[in-house]
Amino acid sequence: METPLERLKRLSAKLIEQLDEAKPESFDSYMTEREQIFEELKREGLSPAQRDDVNEILRMDKQITGAMQKLKAEAASELSKIKKGRQMRSTYDTDAYGGYQDESLFFDRRR
């Protein structure tokens, strides 16, 4: 039977293998399972012999966290673009900034 620490190590390694094409859902399921494993580890405790495994997992976590931060930055950038687009459209559509009205009339004069 696999210990919780071995499961966490395997889970982290699996996510790192797929890091380039990982989707947010992959990170979500990873974090959920990771939290469950941590609860088991708190109940069982760690032995000094497991420190090497813990250090390796921490090293993998840095890579995973970096990828998560990258996804977060990309999402923030996309949200910023959407907000900017909405703001520009709102500015264009409002009357306060000379927006077009349906009742406007134009007169042409010939000289």
What radius of gyration results from the CA coordinates? Answer: 27 Å
Oligomeric state of the chains? single chain
Largest sheet: none
Q: How many helices in DSSP terms?
A: 3
Helix content: over 70%
The counted number of beta strands is: 0
Overall outline: rod-shaped
Mean pLDDT comes to 86
Sequence stretches where pLDDT stays below 50 over 5 or more residues: none
Instruction: Quote the distance from N terminus to C terminus.
Output: 95 Å
What is the H-and-E element order? HHH
Strand content: under 5%
Q: What structural category arises from helix and sheet content?
A: mainly alpha
- Write down the domain tally: 1
What would a concise description of this structure say?
With 111 residues, this protein is mostly helical. It contains 3 helices and no strands.
Task: Describe this structure as you would to a colleague.
This protein has 111 residues and is mainly alpha-helical. It has one domain (4-85). 70% of the residues lie in helices and 0% in strands. It starts with a helix and ends in an 18-residue tail after the last helix.
Keywords, separated by commas or semicolons:
mainly alpha; cytoplasm; 70% helix; single chain; rod-shaped; 3 helices; 111 residues
Describe the SSE topology.
Elements: H1 4-17, H2 24-44, H3 51-93
Helix pairs in contact: 1-2, 1-3
